[in-house]
Amino acid sequence: MQLTTVAPGSSLRRRLGTAACLLLASGVSAAHADGGATTQLDATALIYGEKGRTNVVEPTARVTRLFANGQSLSAQLGIDVITGASPSGATPSGRIPAGTTTGRGAGDDRVQTVTAASGGSASGGGADPGAMPTARFQDARAALDLGWTLPLGGWSTSTLGGHFSREKDYQSVGGTGQVSIDMMHKLTTLTLGGGYNHDDVFPTGGLRYGLSDGTARLPSGVAAKEFANGMVGVSRILTRGWMVGFNASRTVERGYLTDPYKIVSVLSADSGLAQSSLTERRPSRRQRTDVLGSTVYHFHDDVLHLSYRYYWDDWRVRSHTLDLKVRHELDSQTWIEPHVRFYAQTAASFYRFGLVQGAPLPDWVSADYRLGPVRSVTVGGTVGFHLPDRPGEWSVRAEYIGQFGDGHPRNAPGIQRTFDLFPTVNIGTLVVSYSLAF
Known about the structure:
By secondary structure, the protein is mainly beta. It has two helices and 21 strands. The protein has helices at about 10-25, 30-35; strands at about 40-50, 55-65, 70-85, 110-115, 120-125, 135-150, 155-165, 170-185, 190-200, 225-240, 240-255, 265, 275-280, 285-300, 300-315, 320-330, 335-345, 355, 375-385, 395-405, 425-435. The protein is globular and about 70 Å long.
């Protein structure tokens, strides 16, 4: 099972796996700042829950070893335990109206049953024929990330990293590299980086042909996909308390990019009732590009972080992300950081709520809401503190995410117009972290 969030139709796990080794190096500075410290321990526990859907528990531990010459080695181990339900891609089955000639009794529910994520059972409609069909699943994943940071003279720093993760139906192996160059009396930093991932997909129940009824399986039970990315960034210190930055990145994906567990409903053109379902099919190539502008401003007691990101790809997904954090020092031992984030994306060119029975089949189609017209708002905050007479720093972050979209498309046939095909999803996250230098 590949866990995903609001990001433009991509796997959260894969994206975090690709970037994790670069991020490992960012935590090293805290240990350097603590005089005499040679080792940094960072432990985090994440609890993530979507109301009525997916639940995740993810403990993570990272150890960074610092050396006298400025080098550092990092190792991070994370474990995900995921349970709950995920939308199957089908539309609500609807209730058969009285007087309809179908071979079933009036008022009967049409139930769509397909292979679910990680081999579970997916039911479309259930007791409520107007509900979005979901698939029950459970999975676990282990991931290991390694990072090595090496100063090059007094003006440059290089970072190399490796990543490996494994779960029931997915394996990812990758590497990253990054070079940061200080210029103009170290007021400007230029960063160049890149990464490569090779992933294998081996779904429970085998690989199904795209745009099929799902009964036939591909001869090979394993499909591969590759991700290659590069980035360039520049940051500039403008004043004693003000820094700005700009990053641009490009990612090319090739291979099996279809979600093996998602389906698309085939609807009656007249009634809108679900007649059957087909497996989804996505293109085998995707090019992603994004640009990010950010600024950090240090006031007397507060630090403001503001960023804007624009994303586009050749699947015609476009997204905007605005992120704002303000850190306020309450005293020498405690700080708080409120957080607000807005996100909006357009739908992929082949995204459909459903297919109409009898119409020609498209080359590509997906009803995965992650490729749809998604909107989200995040509000929350973090509190950091030191316990009296205890080493290390604690932080607790709690956030609410409201995710929604256009659930009433004008071209929905028949009874589908009465359903909310993109119901609001309420998501809560809690992250508890502990950091210790020794």
